[in-house]
Task: structure prediction
Amino acid sequence: MNRENRRAVVLLVLGVALLANPLYLYPDGVSYEKTYTYEASAVDYPPHTADAFYRVKSCGWNPLQSAECAGIIDMARGDPVELELNPDRDVYSEFWSFDYVRTDGRYFEPNATLDGRTLTLSLHPVSTETVKRDLSEDLDEVPHHVREAVRNGSSTVTEEHVYEARSHYVRHDGQYYVVEPVESERVPTGWGWKAPSDAAIDAMRLAAWIGGVACVWRAGEWTERGREE
Result:
């Protein structure tokens, strides 16, 4: 292959690459990733996180809030509920569906005791500190981005390191914190580029297309010269 044909091949390859530039020059399907910003806030009370929602039953002053709360409010006043069970029925060890009850500004632990076939339901008062410690996670047990938020006030993490963007209730050095996602952002990750404007992308693609046509044209000219020689 003479020099002219070699030049023609190089220009042809370059021209085809430039004409195909939408496949690699910031394509429409560029990869993205989501980042979350977490912030930590010191709190003095058990928060309404997802875990606390399922583990703590809140009953307001109105007993008609629910049939369940009507009985709970009576039990919180010191009136246990006794039920005579059918001899053929069993009682599950985890009779209550929640760990604590909050009513009248106080916390209680539900209890169920079985004496013969008599089931007694009652509530025992517990301190707010007991509830806070039980519901919270130790700082050493939470993910890295949660620990960083507690220590620095905030942290940023990508979605690949977060199974679920949720709030955390954390204890550290005698203090309690709620760490929750406050902001999310979806950013392009292709080759570490920043996201250019649509006009800039169109300009880059047009320039590459013109350059590709010119290279293919020149490749044809060099091929003709190679034939003449």
